[in-house]
């Protein structure tokens, strides 16, 4: 889907390279990047500086949701650490930055790199006008990730992998990882031959940890990412108390908790706060009467909210709803 979006954008707005990153809607941290950059070996540095750079950061954009790096730096690209430390050497002359967000959260951000000239105001306006449709489409993709597929579609013994850990240096260079991590990443990013998968989700949460430590942003360094239909992982970064063989950051992968699944499920299906409350009540085992008592509403209102939730999610019953929301 993202590639189709990029193809359409490219027909009217020329660009040379891109990064289209899906984010956790609550933490705003990247979890599923799609990128074409000049040098993949330089990706850790590009990601690190993206998170550490205030001008043009997706979390700082105004209501339009779109700007250029040239505009964000007041015409002085040297004010951007990412440009000065990474993009400049690749001949980048401007970056169009857009954020995909709505009242339910931040679903992604898009960077378009240009090597010749700058982005015109009309091009920025064209992307900004398309953002509501792009955001809705991305959110709907996340919602569809909760549909439980046939057994063959699920990763083999995913629940038996156990938590995985990746150790990185402050420059985001991977140092070591557990066997369980290899299982998770190979499922997330299948690769050919003996080449190891690029832990892009790990690089993003680790970069967010650095941003928090530097005072650039205060969102937690974690995110939820779809492993397969019906299966979600939480990726989280933390600082090691003492450096270990060149590593200073630990990134953990584990199955997403029921509470965090319910939160993401409600956001992805654009539920109202009260609809979300009803789903949580049902997920804790309450019947209609119990949910009504907990929420201080009538049983009829609970049933009305559930009808709306069924319509939003495509669930045919409470059991089907919980199977989608909780993966059980």
Automatic annotation (TrEMBL):
Q: SUPFAM superfamilies of this UniProt entry?
A: C-terminal effector domain of the bipartite response regulators (SSF46894)
The species this protein belongs to is Pedococcus bigeumensis
Question: What range(s) does the HTH luxR-type domain occupy?
Answer: 264-328
The molecule here is called LuxR family transcriptional regulator
Keywords for this protein = DNA-binding, Transcription, Transcription regulation
Q: What is the lineage of its organism?
A: Bacteria, Bacillati, Actinomycetota, Actinomycetes, Micrococcales
Pfam families for the chain: GerE
Specify the domain of life of the species encoding this protein.
Bacteria
PROSITE patterns, per the entry? HTH_LUXR_2
